[in-house]
Amino acid sequence: MARPVALDTGGAAIRCEAVTKSFGKVAAVASITVTLAAGRTTALVGPSGCGKSTILRMIAGLEAPDSGTILLGSDPPKAVARRGGLAMAFQDPSLLPWRDVRANVALGAELARKPADAVDTLIELVGLGGFAGHRPAELSGGMRQRAAIARSLVSAPEILLLDEPFGAVDAMTRSRLNAELPPLWRDRGTTAVLVTHSVEEAVVLSDRVLVLSDRPARIVADIAIDLAPDQRGHDTQAVRALAQDVFSTLELKD
Ligand SMILES: Nc1ncnc2c1ncn2[C@@H]1O[C@H](COP(=O)(O)OP(=O)(O)OP(=O)(O)O)[C@@H](O)[C@H]1O
């Protein structure tokens, strides 16, 4: 069993106020106003192409809203990113091709100017123990995603943004990661936002699920996920019941 990762952080609340975003004539985000509590995990679910990744990219400071404001704690996203308080793992992991897995994971700590002492523990935890010396080209897509997840966690960020982080990971590994990784950010007080196409995964991983409409995205349901840690398995009755609640709002989204 891997030892606990001994990094500490304080999460920051995420506040979106009347945030809109269009790409040319395509309206991606209608007007989103929401506060995500510090230290909690929120999942965004909704139809494909509705604007979930755009919201996440705006929270990351990678896209600027057309109007409205986003604050992480009391700072704009770019300021938090600059001081190393924000980490992300996106669907298409951008690992440095010339670095091996260990050096890619360590990059998360280097960029945040934090200690890199958890690197090997995290590599073990995401199941890449035998591949620390391998370069991205020698890994499968799912293995690259797992390396990116380890990189996002190594800096113990205040804000963690995950966009379909387990999309290419096989079902068994995904289920194990769903059980083992969230305590790493929950126990440190990280504020996490994740996008997933799996409603069950959203329920298992989160404290709150925001259901979005078809594009342009607006929030059509806000569902609290009040589960004890031992209820957070994919096959528990409580998870199935909450997933059903989310599904029913997805069907009613218009
Ligand atoms: N950089 C961009 N330039 C132009 N259009 C964009 C850009 N990024 C997103 N879009 C458009 O904005 C809309 C929302 O895209 P987004 O990726 O946010 O959706 P999504 O809900 O994350 O989709 P999916 O669930 O399929 O990953 C889409 O119509 C997409 O084509």
Automatic annotation (TrEMBL):
Signal peptide: none annotated. The keyword Nucleotide-binding applies. It comes from the Bacteria. It comes from Tranquillimonas rosea. Keywords: ATP-binding, Nucleotide-binding, Transport. It holds the Pfam family ABC_tran. GO terms for molecular function: ATP binding; ATP hydrolysis activity. Residues 14-239 form the ABC transporter domain. Transmembrane segments: none annotated. Belongs to the ABC transporter superfamily. The keyword ATP-binding applies. This is NitT/TauT family transport system ATP-binding protein.
